[in-house]
Every structure is written in structure tokens, then in C-alpha cells.
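[PROTEIN RECORD]
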Amino acid sequence: MGIGRPRRTARAIRLAAVGVAALGLALAGASCTGDSTEADDEALTAPELRWLRAYSAWTIAVYDDELGPPPGQRLVEACTTRLEGVGPPPSERLEPTWERAAAACPLLARPGSVRRANDVVEAADDLVLPFFLDEQSLPLNGTPTETSRADLWLSAVASRASDSHQEVRCWTLEDWRRLVDEENAWMVQSDDAEELYGWQDGDTDRIHMRLRQCNVLHRLGRENVLAWKRADQVEAADSVVTLAHEIQHLLLPDAGEAEVECAAAETIGAVARRMGATAGEASRLAALYVTDIRDELPDEYLSSCDGAFD
């Protein structure tokens, strides 16, 4: 979607599909995973997020030529009116973005200057970058943690599987909620942080997952999964398929959610083995996907998969 900062493109996401009981256990455990990142005291406030949502809708309209008239005075007026509808920001730190953005509308007066108008909007976008959680550096760590991290091991697994340089970011529940709130504002969407389990951002080459799921993946190969309680095994299966799903989005960039989910389901065993699971454990997780997870997915993730799960 346009040429602005990353996150303008549609997210390749995977919604939670575990049962209510297992989901409750996951959320309860995730809420105790530790403090959020150091930047929480600078998190965007609710009024700032509301303003950024309106501002983002305006920028998308500019980028995608959705304001209506062709270049000329009518387009300038449409652009200005829409921006005035956004209104001034609620905080001083967002004022530079507002001031820079205002210079874009007059450039829509002539066809030859539209490119320059987009450059101005992009520059205004860049002034917002420091305030987003995902634009801040996360510690690189290849082992389980209680704080948000960029996971070296999972990043390497995703990179090898997709033949591209990916970074898997693992977020505490507190950071996850903030991340989703910011993404919703910037992309003018309304995803529920409690239902969203992961997504892949094609512009930043990042896969985002909940910290608890990442930590579960690290336990495969180190513990006897077949001795776990069923709810824990279901959570492990869901963690594996979440990572597999986002990897498949890389391999099938033009595919819909159902096709990607089908492809991911077919690789659950292989991905689990890559995580260190035994053949028996991998088979168990693949079976639990069919019996406990698949039917709980939203309709957009379901298809016949050529009868594989009928």
C-alpha cells in the first residue's frame, strides 16, 4: 500500500485458534513473562494513537490517489480539507509531523509535482518512526527470556526456510498489546491483540510472535513433549503452526490466508523436527492441529486443502 514507511502493506497474520482453556493458560502465563521494553514510558498515548489513525488514513489516501479529483486546485482543496479534518495533534512531539504534512497538499496542484508531494508525506511519516515500539531495537538472544527479544535461533530457522533474511521478534503480552495498538492505528485496522498470534511484515522482513510461543518452541527438542499435558501439547502445536504459517507467507506471497494455512499445516511435522522434536512428537503435534486447532480457525483460514483434513 503505497510508498510510505513500512507497515503500510497488508499484514500476513495468523489468528489464535487454540481452545478457550488453552488460550486462558497462554494469556495467564504470558502476563507473567516480565516487564515490557524500556520505552514503555514513552509509549504513544490513546489520544496520540487516535490522531495517528486519522493522519494515517489521510496519508494512505494521498499515496493511493484516493482523494478524488485529478491534480489541480480541486485536488489541493480536497487534500487540505481532509488534513484539516484530521486536526492538530494532541501532543508537542507529533507537531513536526503535522507541520511537515501540510506542505504536501499545495504540491498536488500540478501533475508533475505529485511525486514531490509523496516525498513530503513520506518525510512526515519518518518523523513518527521513533515513537513506534517496533522501530526500537530489541536485544538479540538465542535462548528463552522473560522480556521481549529478537530471537536469533528462530530468525535463523525462518531465514533458512524462506531463503531470505528474516528476524523473528518475540513480545511479552504487555509489549504485544502496545505493538498491535500501534499497528492498528498506523494501518487503520482493528485487530484484537488477544486473538492475534503472529504476523509477517514483508517490508521489514520481520515475523512477530508472542513471547510465550517462542519460548515453547525452544522447549521442543529439550523435553519429552509426549509427557506434557494435552493443553501444553496443543499450545506447542499452535506455536509450531504459527511460525510455519508466517514462513509460508514468505514462500507464497500472493496466496490468501486459507491457502497459506493449508501449506503451513502440511509442514507442521517438518517444522517441529526442525525445532528438535522427535518423529513421534512431530506426528503428535500434527495430529493435534487437526483435532484441536483447525476447526477453531476463522473462516478465512479454512478451505478443503484438497480434502486433507476432511
In short: Residues 46-131 form one domain. The longest strand covers residues 196-201. The chain has twelve helices and six strands.
